[in-house]
Amino acid sequence: AQSVSQHNHHVILSEAASLELGCNYSYGGTVNLFWYVQYPGQHLQLLLKYFSGDPLVKGIKGFEAEFIKSKFSFNLRKPSVQWSDTAEYFCAVTGNNRLAFGKGNQVVVIP
Amino acid sequence: NAGVTQTPKFRVLKTGQSMTLLCAQDMNHEYMYWYRQDPGMGLRLIHYSVGEGTTAKGEVPDGYNVSRLKKQNFLLGLESAAPSQTSVYFCASSLAGTGGHQPQHFGDGTRLSIL
To answer: Among B11, B79, B91, B107, which residue's Cβ finds the most Cβ atoms within 10 Å?
Structure first.
């Protein structure tokens, strides 16, 4: 079965620090990759997606992610976080009509 | 545009009661999904539908049933609620995709407590 692993479930950092969240998946075929963000009390929103092409994907709010096929990874990065980036972040992978979400990273940014 | 609308937003049930959660989308999306979100577990797919009249099991389908009689609606039913079904339920929809699911649009969630 397809699975998605997200490490460091709880991340606490100060404003202006850099953020990197790891995402590894197990599916070996062609995949579509997503990062979603869930702000406190809100629903999930799409942050960025990768379908094909340039493996470095830029999303909203200064986030980017890099697809490394050989490592089955799709890590999320932001060079300088803000307090408003406090949220839970989910990686999701689809392929061959299967879909799986990671367990999420709870990120708290301290002003 | 309303996007994806879930009703109700909150509900408290007693063990053994039944209820139906309604999801409606106005984006003419083919695919619809029901998830449950529990602390430390992320989102787990309960059931999904790739078109009107079709449904399929996800990761945690037991204890739930679904129906997609109309393209815009996806109903999630609990026939006999159990405390283990206390959770936040999210509905989502997306365009059809070839080989993989498209980005999903999520509703605001339904917080369900089973006593």
So the answer is: B91
Q: Do A103 and B48 touch (CB under 8 A)?
A: no
Question: Which residue among A43, A49, A101 sits closest to B103, beta carbon to beta carbon?
Answer: A49
Average pLDDT over residues B9-32: 95
Six token digits for residue A51: 């379908």
Cβ atoms of residues B30 and B56 within 8 Å? no
| A79 upstream amide cis, omega within 30 of 0 | no
Q: Which residues contact B79 (CB under 8 A, 6 or more apart)?
A: B18, B63, B65
CA A56 → CA A41, A48, A50, B111, distances in Å? 30, 11, 8, 36
Share of chain A above pLDDT 90, in %: 73
Contact B61, B46 (CB under 8 A): yes
pLDDT of B74 > 90? The answer is yes
Q: With a cut of 60, say whether residue B99 has pLDDT above it.
A: no
In this complex, the residue of B48, B100, B104 whose CB is nearest that of residue A95 is B100
The pLDDT of A31-56, averaged and rounded, is: 91
